[in-house]
Write a structure and sequence with these properties.
Radius of gyration: 27 Å
Shape: elongated
Helix content: 25-40%
Number of helices: 11
Largest sheet: 2 strands, antiparallel
Strand order of the largest sheet: 1-4
Number of domains: 3
CATH class of the largest domain: Alpha Beta
CATH architecture of the largest domain: 2-Layer Sandwich
Number of strands: 8
């Protein structure tokens, strides 16, 4: 036999032996995955948003199957989907309450800016570079970080402030993490009366930089007959558990910083969560 033939035969024998060893090892050390994981994953929406606190829907399915003591909740999946998942796992379905993201600011073009920001159109970039032009230290910068972060296209910038389409919002929480000002919060969808302001400054100071900020006048507290207004200097907060939606506080607020989100977008426009398109690129 010539050298080439011997070489080919030798390499072929080595490859065959290696293949046998690898095959045997794969059988011996194979990890048998529970087929229930695939079934759970198929029921999930496949958004991979991370709203459940895990890396994606596959991780959610694995955690649900492998650790039955952990009661996980997918913020995107509807209640009937979670009920089906619980049934497959042999668990009692969790009682779910619909939630939504909400921007606790409506300043935008109604808030004073002391200069013109010419940097990267990013809220995070403006904060990090210390070049924020908005005078209010608690308001929405309006550069659209939350818009670009939302995987469900539920946020738009209108009038210089972020607005959530609450009818479409899945409350995954990604926008909350994207906001450097921490003014987006996850709240119960049915809690429709709220103070759209986070400024704890005194009234005269708020008036200097925003026409729709809470000035701490306490007129809402005096108007409410149901003890549904909590006042902590110098900002009011609606206690939703006590609120009857009589709207006395909404009507009495002199700066219109207390909002009532109605379902009918034709009546309330921005408050109903319409989708707008003037988002910075």
């Amino acid at each position: 036999m010539d050298v080439v033939s011997i070489t080919v035969a030798t390499m072929g024998t080595v490859a065959l032996i290696a293949g046998i060893i690898l095959f045997a090892a794969s059988k011996k050390f194979a990890v048998i995955e529970n087929p229930l994981i695939d079934e759970i994953e198929e029921l999930l929406p496949g958004a991979n948003c991370g709203g459940c606190g895990l890396t994606g829907c596959r991780a959610f399915a694995e955690a649900s199957v492998n650790d039955r003591t952990v009661r996980l909740k997918c913020p995107v999946a509807q209640a009937e989907i979670m009920a089906k998942i619980a049934e497959k796992l042999g668990l009692e379905a969790l009682e779910t309450v619909r939630t939504t993201a909400r921007v606790m600011c409506q300043g935008g073009s109604r808030s004073r800016r002391e200069s013109e920001y010419l940097g990267i159109q990013s809220c995070f970039a403006a904060v990090v570079s210390n070049s924020v032009d908005l005078v209010c230290p608690y308001g929405c910068l309006g550069y659209g970080d939350c818009v670009r972060a939302c995987p469900f296209d539920c946020i738009r910038i209108v009038g210089g402030v972020a607005v959530v389409n609450e009818e479409e919002c899945t409350s995954c929480g990604i926008c909350v993490k994207a906001c450097p000002r921490n003014i987006i919060e996850i709240t119960q969808y049915e809690k429709r009366v709220y103070v759209a302001c986070r400024s704890p400054d005194k009234g005269p100071e708020v008036k200097q930089y925003c026409s729709v900020g809470c000035i701490g006048c306490r007129l809402c507290e005096k108007a409410c007959q149901y003890d549904a207004i909590d006042f902590k200097p110098f900002i009011s907060r609606v206690i939703s558990e006590n609120c009857t939606e009589c709207l006395a506080c909404v009507e009495k607020c002199p700066t219109h910083s207390i909002l009532f989100r109605q379902v009918d977008p034709e009546k309330t426009g921005i408050l109903a969560g319409k989708v707008y398109d003037d988002v910075p690129e």
